[in-house]
């Protein structure tokens, strides 16, 4: 009788231990599952590149074009430091607060033709390699990568005849660059400068104005540059 009671007592003592062990096992399994799930989420998240940029906007400075004197305007965005970034993963949004009609924003997408000069059509801003854009390969926005020391640039010097005008569009019911009453189509040979492609109502811009430039990393949907740039 005593022996039987001892066995009963032993079995009762073991039961709580087994219960605790089972709880520990379940906890470990759950922790592993949560860790695996979290790692999967992290692996699927696009990392936002880290980079430092500077931007310069110049309006109507004196410039000599061959034998004649003239003026030119340009915007230059320079990658100062940080990660190398493929421009096909970038989008640029600019704002001209003074734009007539209240439509002061321009959106620049990679590999979407937005400028035609008579010599070439392509996507501004171009990779500033120090020569003529039309003679350089992979120079249009979306074709090159930015890395420290590289600049991307748009200008108006190569447009001797401007067809695009900032006007009210009856079709879209907003102000935009039009040619003969319709939205300008640079891919079809209608002339629009890089500066007009980059900024709404560029002709209204004066020295001392501030224009906003944002650069968005599209895979992560994060703004990696945002600056109000004073026009020189």
From TrEMBL:
The keyword 4Fe-4S does not apply. This is Type IV pilin N-terminal domain-containing protein. Keywords: Membrane, Transmembrane, Transmembrane helix. It comes from the Archaea. It holds the Pfam family Pilin_N. Residues 12-96 form the Archaeal Type IV pilin N-terminal domain. The chain crosses the membrane at residues 12-34.
């Amino acid at each position: 009788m005593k022996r039987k009671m001892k066995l009963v007592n032993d079995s009762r003592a073991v039961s709580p231990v087994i219960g605790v062990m089972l709880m520990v096992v379940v906890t470990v399994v759950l922790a592993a599952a949560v860790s695996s799930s979290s790692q999967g989420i992290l692996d699927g998240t696009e990392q936002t590149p880290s980079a430092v940029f500077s931007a310069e906007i110049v309006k109507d400075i004196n410039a000599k074009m061959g034998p004649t004197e003239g003026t030119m305007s340009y915007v230059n965005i320079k990658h100062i430091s940080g990660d190398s970034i493929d421009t096909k993963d970038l989008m640029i949004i600019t704002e001209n607060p003074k734009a007539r009609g209240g439509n002061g924003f321009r959106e620049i997408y990679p590999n979407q033709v937005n400028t035609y000069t008579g010599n070439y059509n392509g996507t501004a801003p171009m990779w500033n390699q120090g020569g003529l854009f039309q003679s350089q390969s992979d120079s249009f926005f979306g074709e090159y990568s930015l890395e420290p020391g590289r600049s991307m640039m748009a200008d108006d010097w190569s447009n001797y005849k401007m067809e695009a005008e900032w006007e009210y569009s009856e079709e879209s019911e907003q102000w935009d660059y039009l040619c003969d009453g319709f939205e300008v189509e640079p891919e079809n040979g209608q002339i629009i400068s890089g500066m007009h492609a980059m900024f709404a109502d560029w002709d209204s811009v004066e020295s001392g104005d501030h224009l906003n430039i944002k650069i968005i990393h599209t895979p992560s949907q994060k703004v990696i540059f945002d600056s109000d740039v004073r026009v020189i």
